[in-house]
Amino acid sequence: SNTIIGRTEWVKDIDGKCKGIREAESLKGYFSIRYLKNDGIHDFEIVDFNYTSIELKVFVRDSKELNKDIPIKVDGIQKKTKRLTSLSDKPTIIFKSDNILASNYSFGSESTTIMLQDPDTETLDDDDPFESGDSTTWTIYGSLNPTRTPSGIKFNISEIPAGNQIDAATLYLLVSSGNGLPLTVQVFEYDIVWNEEDGIDESTTGGALLDTDADSGVDDLINLDVTSWVSSGYTSGDINVSFALNITGTFQSVTVISKEFSTASSRPFLNITFSIIPVIGITTSLTSPGDASVEPDGDITFNCSAVPVLSNVTNITLYHNSSGSFDKIH
Fold this sequence. Notes:
Layout: E1 2-5, E2 10-12, E3 18-20, E4 33-37, E5 42-49, E6 53-60, E7 69-74, E8 77-83, E9 92-96, E10 104-107, E11 112-116, E12 130-131, E13 152-156, E14 165-177, E15 183-189, E16 209-215, E17 220-225, H1 227-235, E18 240-248, E19 254-256, E20 269-275
Antiparallel strand pairs: 1-13, 2-3, 4-11, 5-6, 6-9, 7-8, 7-10, 10-11, 12-19, 13-18, 14-17, 14-19, 14-20, 15-16, 15-18
Organism: marine sediment metagenome
Protein name: DNRLRE domain-containing protein
């Protein structure tokens, strides 16, 4: 399984750490304001907001609106009123909800209405493409504001039984050039921690170059050899492996399809070939005391840690070869 993470889901918080948008203390600067309607009389200033709370200041530009009750609505439902006594008056208003980003806010009888960019319509879990801005940037989601910010692609490899060997790993991507011209896609190691709470560090770039592949320009399925990086992560016990993508060329962009794309064959996938390491046989010997009346004593310990986690051990057969006989097997 794989996940493409865009900046609609991960932001760099005020403490410098990357967090999911639902945990970040501040989202200001990452989500743009959309005027659904602007009457030119009522306006506002956003102080700050996060996923569940928004703080803003309302004011008027026309003195005729002073000393009037200004209706303030959320999703068309009046929540509060404010009466301003001067054009410099900017009272603070705070709203809380389960998802501040999904609501619209109206101010005044003429209803200047705004909405913060809704991540539920901008995430990559649909048919929207995943696009880089130009050849100087790491792969980004091109329709967001701000653009040209880094992102990554992650695959969960936890279904591969532990203790085995990665023989080959190939990353397949359906890509398309932004201007229809051929380009070369590069895939790099992306050494970041994915614990589902940490996002992409803005300063993080790819590590070693793993492979390159040329794109013909339009909807081309490319394949990239990422065996060394997948094997390294698997051996280290990582359940996730990540890659950074880049392109070479001038004024070009590359589009990558997301994991939820409606056509399954177009989704990115990581093909891994691995070998199951068999349980090592055990050979042991006991020296006969040369006296049939004396019982030789020995312990045999079976370590089955190398048995694949998807297998069931139903029985163990012990074979022995001796000049006498064992009365007991421990």
